[in-house]
Design a protein that fits this description.
0% strand; 4 helices; mainly alpha; single chain; elongated
């Protein structure tokens, strides 16, 4: 089995764990303020972890001469970078403005948060595509 496929299977695991366990639990256990502080530390680290693993998957797929997986893996990696360095700082900026009473910030916060979640879900689906197509072709 190709290393890139194993890495994407691991990516699916950490992403589903976040969606199914971490995110819902954070808001049930922690106060709104504590949850916000925790997630501001978690998201950049999680996105960088995803960037590193997806980049490794892209390299592994290139070495295996599997161009489609290399391209998809690289796009997934870029999505993690975009979430870490573009979307998350902007989301935090608008969330802070919203908490400071800027009602207009709510719309931008909502839009950017939606885009971030959409990118994350597309990445999850892309990893799933790689794993499922490898399984079906074996």
């Amino acid at each position: 089995m190709q290393l890139s496929i194993l890495i994407h299977a691991a990516n699916i695991g950490f992403m589903v764990m976040f969606l199914a366990v971490v995110a819902p639990t954070v808001f049930k256990v922690l106060s709104q303020k504590a949850a916000g502080a925790y997630l501001r530390k978690l998201f950049p680290r999680m996105f960088m972890f995803g960037f590193i693993t997806s980049s490794c998957a892209a390299l592994a797929a290139m070495f295996d001469s599997h161009s489609p997986n290399a391209i998809i893996s690289a796009l997934v990696a870029l999505g993690f970078l975009g979430n870490a360095f573009i979307l998350t700082p902007q989301i935090n900026k608008y969330r802070d403005a919203l908490l400071d009473g800027d009602a207009a910030a709510k719309t931008m916060f909502g839009r950017l948060h939606f885009i971030s979640v959409a990118v994350f879900l597309v990445q999850l689906l892309a990893s799933g595509y790689i794993v499922i197509t490898a399984y079906l072709s074996s």
